[in-house]
Amino acid sequence: YDAIDNSGGYYRGHAAKEARSIMNIPFRMQSEELEEMFVKEAKKAELIGLKGHRSVGGLRASVYNALPLESAKALVAFMADFKAKHG
């Protein structure tokens, strides 16, 4: 959530802070085209499953207990790099 909250609005969370899930982190970007590009580039970086729910759209990071901390850090680094390239 820090990567989203500290992105200057580039990434935008769906839920109010007090209602946020600790298992699924949904977020949006400025356009669906940019979200599609994010998913494609993330896949190339071996970050998969980031496309949001089909009825809601957007993006979603699932961070269940079995997810290694290194994976979460890799996503945060990818988000920063993506913003630097396309922001």
Give an overview in words:
The protein is an alpha+beta fold and about 90 residues long. It is about 40% helix and about 15% strand. The protein has three helices and three strands; from the N terminus they run H-E-E-H-E-H. It has a three-stranded antiparallel sheet with strand order 1-2-3. The two termini are about 20 Å apart.
Question: Key features?
Answer:
single chain, 87 residues, alpha+beta, 3 helices, 40% helix
Summarize the structure.
With 87 residues, the protein is of the alpha+beta class. Helix content is 40%, strand content 13%.
The string of secondary-structure elements, in order, is: HEEHEH
DSSP, total strands:
3
The major β-sheet equals: 3 strands, antiparallel
- The total of helices stands at 3
User: Biggest sheet: strands side by side, in what order?
Assistant: 1-2-3
The global form is: globular
How widely separated are the two ends? 18 Å
Rg, rounded, reads: 12 Å
**Which stretches of 5+ consecutive residues score pLDDT under 50?**
none
Give the integer mean of the pLDDT values: 94
Residue fraction in strands: 5-15%
- Helical amount among residues, as a percent range? 40-55%
State the secondary-structure class.
Answer: alpha+beta
